[in-house]
Write a structure and sequence with these properties.
This protein is mostly helical. The protein folds into two domains: 66 residues, no CATH class; 105 residues, 3-Layer(aba) Sandwich (Rossmann fold). Strands 1-2-3 form a three-stranded parallel beta sheet. Helix 5 links the parallel strand 2 and strand 3. Helix 1 packs across helix 2. The longest helix is centred in the first third of the chain and has 37 residues. It is extended and about 75 Å long.
Length: 185
């Protein structure tokens, strides 16, 4: 019986192994049984053409659904249903580690372009202690350029080497969430 690790490694190896298997067996069979290779290539090509048709069909269906949903005025629909969305506040988390300013700026610009009241948005920029200078620079630029666009901008700095924590985006986001709860409460 395979352990979880060995099963994981086997599944990880299978794609590469299958590519090498097709290359080696195809080359060998091209000299031994060339007719088999011709049949295989025909079946393989038909398979991929059918896959492309399948993909295209569902892509067209999804695009049509998207076009229908895009035309809906959601604010009017909520108002018609008696839902008061105007008093809702939103917290947006933006985790930053090694992203350059143009990437972060593009993300913030897309949030600002949203057709919702920006005064209902609180932005939380979550940086990592391991990249302190870089994160402080990103936070400073974000506050300088986008402070009027949001109700408030909070910045957090996830401490490095916390006991019992795996370093990464998830732990950074969790830390920022805990800090945002303190701000909200």
């Amino acid at each position: 019986m395979l352990s979880d690790y060995h099963r994981y490694r086997l599944y990880e190896i299978l794609p590469g192994l299958s590519v090498w298997f097709v290359i080696v067996v195809g080359t060998v069979l091209a000299f031994i049984r060339p007719l088999w290779i011709i049949y295989f290539m025909i079946v393989f090509d038909v398979y991929w053409v059918l896959k492309v048709f399948n993909y295209s069909f569902y892509l067209i269906v999804a695009w049509r659904r998207y076009a229908v949903v895009k035309k809906i005025d959601w604010q009017a629909k909520l108002a018609a249903d008696g839902i008061k969305y105007g008093n809702k506040r939103h917290v947006i988390f933006l985790t930053v580690f090694n992203e350059e300013w143009p990437v972060v700026k593009t993300a913030l610009e897309s949030i600002v372009r949203a057709c919702y009241d920006k005064n209902a948005f609180t932005l939380v920029i979550a940086g990592e202690e391991r990249m302190r200078e870089h994160c402080h620079e990103i936070m400073h630029l974000a506050e300088a350029q986008f402070a009027p666009a949001f109700a408030d901008i909070l910045t957090t700095m996830h401490p490095a080497n916390e006991a019992g924590e795996i370093q990464g985006k998830g732990s950074n986001l969790h830390y920022a969430e805990q800090e945002a709860k303190k701000y909200i409460a």
